Amino acid sequence: MQLKAFVVLASVLSTALAHTRVWSVWINGVDQGDGKGQYIRSPPTNNPVKDITSSAMSCNVNNQAVPKVVSVRAGDTVTFEWFHDYRNDDIIATSHKGPVLVYIAPTSSNGAGSVWTKLFHAGNDGSWAVDKLLNSKGHHNVVIPDVPAGDYLLRPEIIALHEANVPYSSNNIRGAQLYMNCIQIKVTSNGSKTLPSGNSFPGTYSYSNPGIVFDIYAKGADMTKYQVPGPSVWSGSSGGAITRAAIVTNPTPPSGGGSTPAPGNGQTAALYGQCGGTGWTGPTLCAEGVCKAASEYYSQCVPA
Ligand SMILES: *[C@@H]1O[C@H](CO)[C@@H](O)[C@H](O)[C@H]1NC(C)=O
Ligand SMILES: [Cu+2]
């Protein structure tokens, strides 16, 4: 009796420890700080979504607007940082092999309807995307495409396939485990590549999809034949990669005599807000911290 109870508890614990969610994003190598419930519509736990017909497929189980947005421009690299219990921990269990994907939708949709566009995916090109993510200490990125100005949700996603040899619909203690978090961004550049949209969550994935039901333990099988679920990556995407953020420790001031910020408009930017960069017309003063250039295009208020 005692032993049995212990075994059950242990397996529940090991499962809980295996899961993952997003801690923060980095813009061009600058950490935007703990985003949970701030600019990330964070779920309350690191548990997966397994019912792919559920409304939680769009932005997980807590899809409500959060107070902040991260300002970005076309060409900026947005790096997502995943963790399971603590920042810089072991990210996700090594058993949780599978693909890594990123989608985008206008924030005005709240993720509902046929509004999602795929910006990036990686499956298995000889190694699993999740193994690459473990090697990059939980970091992967996309480059912001040249979309019209406005508010958008970025939806990075990991699909863990260790129990995906059967669909959740026929065995609800198994099935693929999906991890997605939505990040609120504001694109301040104004490009002309309008998102084609065309995909909904729920809707884009189904239990007859070979990317959702797949046996990663099949003997002799060629894992590079794994098909990442969902559409192909949008032709307007500027790409992405599973790699650690190129952390900016000594930002170089803008070259060519442009190192003095243009006169500000008297407004101040919040901590981690943008405070300068080529073409920036917003605040150049920091309410908190100091304004540091991360690149010619982006300066940010960081703790002094
Ligand atoms: C973006 O460009 C379009 C097309 O030129 C224009 O209609 C729109 O007002 C611009 N939006 C912003 C926020 O600058
Ligand atoms: Cu798990």
- Specify the number of helices: 3
- The structural class is mainly beta
Order of helices and strands: HEEHEEEEHEEEEEEEEEE
What fraction, in percent, of the residue positions are helical? Answer: under 10%
Question: What is the number of E strands?
Answer: 16
**Main beta sheet:** 6 strands, mixed
The share of residues in extended strands comes to 25-35%
Global mean pLDDT: 89
Low-confidence parts:
1-15, 253-265
What is the rounded distance between the termini? 58 Å
**Silhouette:** globular
The bound ligands are:
2-acetamido-2-deoxy-beta-D-glucopyranose, copper (II) ion
Structural Rg: 20 Å
Subcellular location: Secreted
Protein name: AA9 family lytic polysaccharide monooxygenase
GO cellular component, one term: extracellular region
GO molecular function, one term: metal ion binding
Keywords:
304 residues; mainly beta; 6-stranded mixed β-sheet; 3 helices; disordered N terminus; binds 2-acetamido-2-deoxy-beta-D-glucopyranose; binds copper (II) ion
Q: What do you see in this structure?
A:
9% of the residues lie in helices and 25% in strands. The chain contains 3 helices and 16 strands. It has helices at 2-18, 56-59, 129-135; strands at 21-27, 30-31, 70-72, 77-83, 100-106, 117-122, 139-143, 150-160, 177-180, 183-187, 240-241, 268-269, 274-276, 285-286, 290-295, 298-302. A hairpin with a 2-residue loop joins strand 1 and strand 2. Bound molecules: 2-acetamido-2-deoxy-beta-D-glucopyranose (NAG) and copper (II) ion (CU). It is found in: Secreted.
